[in-house]
Design a protein that fits this description.
Belongs to the thioesterase PaaI family. One of its GO terms (molecular function) is hydrolase activity. Keywords: Hydrolase. The chain has three helices and six strands, in the order ααββαββββ. By secondary structure, the protein is α+β, with helices and mostly antiparallel strands. The protein has a single domain, classed as Hotdog Thioesterase (Thiol Ester Dehydrase, Chain A, Roll). A six-stranded antiparallel β-sheet has the order 1-2-4-5-6-3. A hairpin with a 3-residue loop joins β4 and β5. The longest helix has 17 residues. The radius of gyration is 15 Å and the shape is globular.
């Protein structure tokens, strides 16, 4: 069950002074078992050929999965860390925005699995990613 008292504004505050902010990733919506965001396709996220960098797509997917996982645990006692991530890069894009929705496949006590679909503004699939998150005790 996700935390009902957290707001989208609070989640977007977590971006401050991180790679997430540098890449221009914004969180746009969240709820029980899902979180959405968007990322610009521009000089910050391009690879040398002028296309969206696959690593930027993975950064977007990991950001959403990690924050999605975090809002489903008690952060005073637990932390969520990436254990494994994979990505299939399906389509290239040169400009505009990509939109992502991460959906929980499994929310357990010690692991979570999240699937993220990244699409163009018109809904064409750009990347499909799956991430396993470890839920660990805070020290």
């Amino acid at each position: 069950m996700h935390k009902k008292d957290i707001t989208l504004e609070q989640l977007n505050e977590w971006r401050k002074n991180t790679m997430v902010e540098h890449l221009g990733i914004e969180l746009t919506e969240f709820g029980e078992g899902y979180i959405c965001g968007k990322m610009p396709v521009d000089h910050r996220t391009h690879q040398p050929m002028g296309l969206l960098h696959g690593g930027a797509s993975v950064a977007l997917a990991e950001t959403l999965a990690s924050i999605g996982a975090a809002i489903h645990v008690d952060l005073t006692k637990k932390a969520c860390v990436g254990l494994e991530i994979n990505a299939n890069h399906v389509r290239s894009i040169k400009e505009g925005w990509v939109y992502a929705k991460a959906t929980a496949i499994h929310i357990g006590r010690s692991t979570q699995i999240w699937e993220t679909k990244i699409t163009t503004e018109t809904g064409d699939l750009v990347c499909l990613s799956r991430m396993t998150v470890a839920v660990i005790d805070k020290k």
